[in-house]
TrEMBL record:
All residue ranges annotated as the PH domain in the record: 1-44
Listed name of the protein: diacylglycerol kinase (ATP)
GO CC terms in record: plasma membrane
Biological pathway: Glycerolipid metabolism; Lipid metabolism; glycerolipid metabolism
Keywords: ATP-binding, Kinase, Metal-binding, Nucleotide-binding, Phosphoprotein, Repeat, Transferase, Zinc, Zinc-finger
GO molecular function list: ATP binding; ATP-dependent diacylglycerol kinase activity; zinc ion binding
Limits of the DAGKc domain: 215-350
Length: 442
C-alpha cells in the first residue's frame, strides 16, 4: 500500500492476521522489503496469537517437553520402556502422558479435559444432571502408590500397569476400577476447579463462557507471568494446569489477561490468582477495570521474581519459589480474607512557559556566543600550529601562554553560560509547579 500519511519518506503495508490488522511502517523501500522477506519466512510457523492460544487450550493435544525420569517409565503409546537408564522421552506437561519421541505423533489427543465436548462419550447423565467421570491415565504411578479401593500397593516398575485419575488423583488396580464410583469427586482443589462440564458454550462474540456448577463454590482464575523469576513462571504454569482445569490457567506472556477474564465474566463471584510481580498484578487489575468486573472478583498474589511490594504489603511474602507447595497455597487462598484496595491513576499536566528573556535578547546572546567560540577556535588553532612547527623557544613559550589563557577564558565563559541556563530553567520550573494539578482518577 503506498504511503498515505504526510511523512513522505515512510512506506506502509497492511498485514492481516487471523486476529488483527497491523500497519507496518518503514523508512524506505529496502527496509520494507527486508520486513516482507522476514514475515514470509515465518509465515508457515505455528503462531501464538491469543485466539490460537485459546484453541490450544481446547484441542486436547498434549503439551510435550523432553525429560528424563528417575525410575523406569513406560510409553503410553507403544507400552515399551522409555530409552536408557534415565528413561529419556517426552512427557506431557499437563497430564504426564509419556511417549517415545518416535511415538508422540501416534498419541491420541486425549490430554486433560477442558470442556464438556472434550469429555465426549464418557459424560455421566443421570437424575442429578450431567456429572464428570474420572479421567484415567494408565501406568507410571508414583512409588508406594496405594489403590483407593483395596488399599494395597498398586502400579509397577516392570510394565505399564494400573490407573491414576488426572482430577481427583485417585489410583486404582485395573481389577478394582469397576468397584469405584464412576463420578469423579475432583479431589483436594474442588472448590477452585472448574470442571470441564461447566465449560460448554461460546458467547455471541466467540469467547468461551463458563457456567458455575454447585461443586465449584469459588472458581479460581490463574494468571502466571511465565517470564517471572528465571524459570519459575513456567514451572508454576505447568503445576497449576495439573491441579486445575487447564482452561482456567493462563500465561500472561501469551495473550494477556483478557481471554481469561472473558471466560469467567459470567460468574457471580470468582477469585483470581496472579503469579508474578507488581507489574503483572497491575496489568490484571487494569483489565478488570476495563471489563468492569471489580465487583465480582477478588484477587490474590503469588509473588514470583522481583518487584513484589504489593504482595509483601498484603502478607503474601516477597517471593515464592517452590512449586511443590501449590496445593497448600491453593488451600490457603481458599481461606484467605479480603481487603479492599483503592487504585488510582495520577495524571500530571505540565505546561511549558516561555522564558523571561525577550526573544531578541536570546538571539543576540546566541549569535554572540557562536562568534566568540569561533574566535576561540581560530586562536587555539593558530597557537597550536605555532607550537608544533616553530623551532624558537620564545615563540613556543609565548604561544603556550596564550593557549593557556584562551582555554581559561573559554572555561569561565562556559561556566557563566551554564549558570544563566540553570537560572532560567529554575524560573520556568517554578512557574510550571504553580500550574501543576494532579488529576486523580479511580
Ligand atoms: Zn513408544
Ligand atoms: Zn497431556
Ligand atoms: Zn477422579
Ligand atoms: Zn485395588
Amino acid at each position: 500500500i503506498p504511503n498515505t500519511t504526510n511523512k513522505p519518506l515512510q512506506m506502509r503495508t497492511g498485514i492481516i492476521t487471523p486476529c488483527r490488522r497491523l500497519i507496518l511502517c518503514a523508512e524506505n523501500r529496502k527496509e520494507m522489503e527486508d520486513w516482507m522477506a522476514a514475515l514470509k519466512s515465518v509465515q508457515n510457523r505455528e503462531n501464538f496469537e491469543s485466539t490460537q492460544y485459546s484453541m490450544d487450550h481446547f484441542s486436547g493435544m498434549h503439551n510435550w517437553y523432553a525429560c528424563s525420569h528417575a525410575r523406569p517409565t513406560y510409553c503410553n503409546v507403544c507400552r515399551e520402556a522409555l530409552s536408557g537408564v534415565t528413561s529419556h522421552g517426552l512427557s506431557c506437561e499437563v497430564c504426564k502422558f509419556k511417549a517415545h519421541k518416535r511415538c508422540a505423533v501416534r498419541a491420541t489427543n486425549n490430554c486433560k479435559w477442558t470442556t464438556l465436548a472434550s469429555i465426549g462419550k464418557d459424560i455421566i447423565e443421570d437424575e442429578d444432571g450431567i456429572s464428570m467421570p474420572h479421567q484415567w491415565l494408565e501406568g507410571n504411578l508414583p512409588v508406594s502408590a496405594k489403590c483407593t479401593v483395596c488399599d494395597k500397593t498398586c502400579g509397577s516398575v516392570l510394565r505399564l500397569q494400573d490407573w491414576r485419575c488426572l482430577w481427583c488423583k485417585a489410583m486404582v488396580h485395573t481389577t478394582c476400577k469397576e468397584q469405584l464410583s464412576s463420578k469423579c469427586p475432583l479431589g483436594q482443589c474442588k472448590v477452585s476447579v472448574i470442571p470441564p462440564t461447566a465449560l460448554n458454550s461460546i458467547d455471541s462474540d466467540g469467547f468461551w463462557k463458563a457456567t458455575c456448577p454447585p461443586s465449584c463454590t469459588s472458581p479460581l482464575l490463574v494468571f502466571v507471568n511465565s517470564k517471572s523469576g528465571d524459570n519459575q513462571g513456567v514451572k508454576f504454569l505447568r503445576r497449576f494446569k495439573q491441579l486445575l482445569n487447564p482452561a482456567q490457567v493462563f500465561d500472561l506472556m501469551n495473550g494477556g489477561p483478557h481471554l481469561g477474564l472473558r471466560l469467567f465474566q459470567k460468574f457471580d463471584t470468582f477469585r483470581i490468582l496472579v503469579c508474578g510481580g507488581d507489574g503483572s498484578v497491575g496489568w490484571v487489575l487494569s483489565e478488570i477495570d476495563v471489563l468492569m468486573l471489580h465487583k465480582q472478583c477478588q484477587l490474590g498474589v503469588l509473588p514470583l521474581g522481583t518487584g513484589n511490594d504489593l504482595a509483601r504489603v498484603l502478607g503474601w511474602g516477597s517471593a515464592c519459589d517452590d512449586d511443590a507447595q501449590l496445593p497448600q497455597i491453593l488451600e490457603k487462598l481458599e481461606r484467605a480474607s479480603t481487603k479492599m484496595l483503592d487504585r488510582w491513576s495520577i495524571m500530571v499536566y505540565e505546561t511549558k512557559f516561555p522564558r523571561q528573556h525577550s526573544t531578541s535578547t536570546v538571539t543576540e546572546d546566541c549569535s554572540d556566543d557562536s562568534e566568540q567560540i569561533l574566535t576561540y577556535e581560530d586562536s587555539v588553532a593558530a597557537h597550536l600550529s605555532k607550537i608544533l612547527t616553530s623551532d624558537q623557544h620564545s615563540v613556543v613559550i609565548s604561544s603556550a601562554k596564550v593557549l593557556c589563557e584562551t582555554v581559561k577564558d573559554f572555561v569561565a565563559r562556559v561556566g557563566k553560560a551554564y549558570e544563566r541556563n540553570t537560572e532560567s530553567s529554575e524560573e520556568s520550573e517554578a512557574m510550571a509547579k504553580k500550574v501543576k494539578r494532579p488529576h486523580l482518577m479511580h
